[in-house]
Amino acid sequence: MQQARGEADVSKREMYGEMQRLVHESSGICIPVFRSYFDAHEANVKGLRPISLGPLMGYNFAESVCVEQ
Which domain, by its residues, includes 25? Predict the structure, then answer.
């Protein structure tokens, strides 16, 4: 990479292509994901509390949530 950065002749900078090939063939990939959740409910829904595992108490809301009449 240092060699490729120092090369002024664009036609000789195929080293970047070689580095890209090496990364593509022998490296992993990390794709960051930032998911936003928004929970809302009516006042008659009881037992629902925020939890950082996902929306609606990490999908476990059916175990502890009820609706008052």
Answer: 1-30
The SS3 of residue 28 is coil
- The model carries a pTM of 0.33
| CA dist., res. 49 & res. 40, Å (int) | 10
Q: In sequence order, which residues have a C-beta less than 8 Å from that of residue 56 and are 6 or more positions away?
A: 39, 48
Q: Are residues 45 and 24 in the same domain?
A: no
- Looking at residue 44, its amino acid is N
CB-neighbour burial class of residue 48 (10 A; exposed 0-12, middle 13-18, buried 19+): middle
- 4-17 tens-digit pLDDT: 778 788 777 788 88
